[in-house]
Design a protein that fits this description.
Elements (H helix, E strand, L loop, with lengths): L1 H29 L3 H19 L3 H12 L2 E8 L5 H12 L5 E7 L6 H10 L2 E6 L21 H14 L7 E5 L5 E2 L2 H6 L5 E3 L2 E4 L2 E8 L6 E5 L15 E4 H6 L14 H6 L9 E2 L1 H4 L4 E2 L18
The structure holds uridine-5'-diphosphate (UDP) and manganese (II) ion.
Subcellular location: Golgi apparatus membrane
Organism: Psylliodes chrysocephalus
Pathway: Protein modification; protein glycosylation
């Protein structure tokens, strides 16, 4: 009798597994977006959980799909010869970050084909926005770079998008400003995942230094100053690439934005002061001893002649 019961149970189990597999395949094939795909997989896993009692590993997977915080990566970008090369490089860095959501804001009137195609080809989770820098704020060809704020309009547009589309308490994640011309080690994104409020780290090749970095008090391990090539006494002498913020803080402080009114070179410092104090910064990258991002700048190419038929 026992033997018969056992066989019956096994048959039932096999039947259940086959039905579930068919169901998963059907559901996955019939879903059209990545979000729909994940939610279908979750539903199917829940079905398993209900019928079969999931193993701890399966339970963990189910929980992880719900809980994994998203890194919202904000990239302002504008047209010039190197734009496609820059965006290709950073999109391929982001392909190594499973929980990245790439918010790309073009400095233009309308979304361009070049950027639309590039971000859709990347297969990343993306949001594509536009925000044009007003002509009077735009850097002229002969102006030195420090003369104008760059990326103000675009970063603010991305912040509004986050505030309009995400919900405090429900959506969990981090916000990082990833300029299109810097170079990034994927390890940086694992560091960002450790942030409670505001995390900071060194940035290579910036401000006339080989590296700019927060300086830690050897006793407390907290930030007590900065090594920076320019005004190290700023409240936060940190480059845009040198910090990331918990999404909750961005959503809680709706007024925290960038502004043309800020003193030149003070965008980062004034923006950070909405959220925290020097003492409360969280030093990452092995207590600010490792460099995972470089403030590189691509040389402007000299193009003497254009071969037609290519989008470079
Ligand atoms: N940027 C922009 N419009 C501009 C100039 C810059 O959208 O007119 C973007 C640029 O693509 C980059 C960010 O703003 O992602 C910062 O600009 P840049 O790298 O020139 O600044 P810097 O390295 O000098 O801080
Ligand atoms: Mn740059």
């Amino acid at each position: 009798m026992d033997h018969l019961e056992n066989r019956k149970f096994k048959k039932y189990l096999i039947y259940l597994i086959i039905v579930s597999c068919v169901l998963i395949t059907w559901k996955v094939l019939s879903s059209d977006s990545e979000e729909a795909y994940i939610s279908e997989v979750k539903e199917c896993l829940k079905l398993f959980q209900y019928k079969l009692q999931l193993t701890p590993l399966q339970n963990m997977l189910l929980k992880k799909l719900d809980d994994i915080p998203i890194i919202y990566v904000i990239t302002p970008t504008y047209y010039r010869y190197v734009q496609k090369a820059e965006l290709t490089r950073i999109s391929q860095t982001l392909m190594l970050v499973p929980n990245a959501h790439w918010v790309v804001i073009e400095d233009s009137e309308e979304r361009t084909k070049l950027v639309s195609n590039l971000i859709s080809d990347s297969g990343l989770k993306t949001t594509h926005l536009v925000a044009k820098t007003p002509p009077f704020e735009k850097l002229k060809a002969k102006d030195p770079r420090w003369k104008r704020h760059r990326g103000v309009e675009q970063r603010n547009k991305a912040l509004s998008w986050l505030r309009d589309n995400l919900q405090l308490g429900k959506d969990k994640g981090f916000v990082y400003f990833m300029d299109d011309d810097n170079a990034y080690n994927v390890k940086l994104f694992s560091e960002i995942m450790k942030i409670k409020k505001v995390g900071v780290w060194p940035v290579g090749l910036v401000g006339g230094f080989n590296v700019e970095t927060p300086v830690l008090d050897p006793g407390t391990g907290k930030v007590n100053g900065y090594k920076s090539g320019w005004k190290p006494n700023r409240p936060f002498a940190i480059d845009m690439a040198g910090f990331a913020i918990n999404l909750d803080l961005i959503l809680e402080n709706a007024k925290a934005n960038f502004s043309y009114k800020m003193e030149k070179g003070f965008q980062e410092s004034q923006f950070l002061s909405y959220f925290t104090t020097k003492e409360n910064l969280e030093p990452l990258a092995d207590n600010c001893t490792k460099v995972y991002v470089w403030h590189t700048r691509t040389e402007k190419p000299v193009v003497k002649s254009e071969v037609s038929g290519y989008e470079v």
